[in-house]
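Input.
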Amino acid sequence: MVLAVEPVKLARRLAARRVGAGTVPVRHIGLDGQAIALANASCDAALSTFTLCTVADPDRVLAELRRVLRSGGRFHFLEHGIAPEPSVANLQRRIEPWQRRLADGCHLTRDSLALVGQAGFVVERYEQGYAAGPKPWSYFTVGIAVNHPRWRCLQLVHHRPWWYPGGYVLSCYLSRMWPDDLGAELSSWLVTL
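Output.
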């Protein structure tokens, strides 16, 4: 069964025919990802598309996703956001106030990869790049992150180290969460792109 959180009536109406024709039951469980009416650790996986750019409090939405995902559950996401090129990012910052008014609160400058990592998910893999279209609206991130109960990502760093000639790596500096909160152990997790 798929449990859906969708605040936009038009989106639910447009999906109704496909949902009805599908073989997997879909149940609409709410309008707000900031307060998901499910028990802790009750979901095996989560999918979010073009959500973190629009919600009022993306940190709260991600905290709710971590709460309802079981340990080891995967969070799949597709978002648009801040471009890596300074000239494009500056343009995004300048037009964002208009974008938010015209596109139901949609932000152009949110860094979805950083938001996911800061929420405590461990990013397993991701891809970023431009799709067809104007650059301020077409820089996308698609990724998979794991809800790991004992590890929390402290900082995501995307860099090109001298020792890795194959390209860029994503370093996620992890902190081990001790049950008694007595301390933390720092380690590094590298994902090659």
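Residues 68 and 188 are 27 Å apart (CA to CA).
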